[in-house]
Amino acid sequence: MSSSQDHDFSFTSADASLTTPTQASQLAKGDYILIQNHACKIIAKNTSKPGKHGHAKISFEATDIFTTKKYTELCPAHHIVQVPTVVRKEYLVVDLTDEGFLSLFDQHNLEATKDDVRAPTMDSELGEKLRKVWKKVNEGEGELCVIVLAAMKQEAVDSVKEVERE
Fold first, then answer.
1. C-alpha dihedral over 6, 9, 13, 16, to 10 degrees?
2. Are 45 and 29 in contact (CB under 8 A)?
3. Tens of pLDDT along 51-70?
4. Which of 10, 62, 101, 159 makes the best surface tag, with the fewest CB within 10 Å?
């Protein structure tokens, strides 16, 4: 039997916390799953009955949380799949740059702004709403908050909300 002094735990992969392994049968509609290295949200799950010599299979239909592209995955129910670590965080929008980036303020971490999140495109419903509320903010009517989703080293604005000034 070896002691814990024989092991070196100081080196880990930088990607160690990006995903967690989970049995496919444990996932449900609304959960996240990694399909073809894309963080996806499950929109449908179908389980087939096991055959005479086979195992039950699960079919997942999911949408990429950043691009909304649809993906499907078919695997045995006992198979281990990767589930992305998805973090939702609310920020106050300080600025919308001409280059299309948001300057965000974390109300819980008062030290710095975050300037590397791209604003949704103008042709999207979310982008249109963001710019409409931003115009009101510039006229002194309230504040603009965004919810940012982060997973697999990517970030994107998930939703926009207008907040009245206190």
1. 120
2. yes
3. 777 889 999 999 999 988 99
4. 10
CA dist list (Å): 55 to 14, 45, 49, 75, 138: 35, 16, 8, 10, 59
115: tokens are 């300037």
Report how far residue 129's alpha carbon sits from residue 139's, in angstroms, rounded to the nearest whole number. Answer: 16
Q: How do residues 5-18 score in pLDDT, each as one tens digit?
A: 454 444 444 545 79
DSSP reduced 3-state for 53: coil
Nearest of 135, 19, 147, 28 to residue 82 by alpha carbon: 19
- 24, two tokens: 């496919």
Length of the chain: 166
Q: Say whether pLDDT at 93 is over 50.
A: yes
Burial (0-12, 13-18, 19+ Cβ within 10 Å), 81: buried
Buried b / exposed e over 10-49, threshold 16 CB at 10 Å, is eeeeeeeeebeebebbebeeebbbbbeebbbbbeebeeee
Sign of CA dihedral 37, 78, 70, 162: negative
> What is the torsion angle, in degrees rounded to the nearest 10, for the CA atoms of residue 106, residue 85, residue 124 and residue 45?
-150
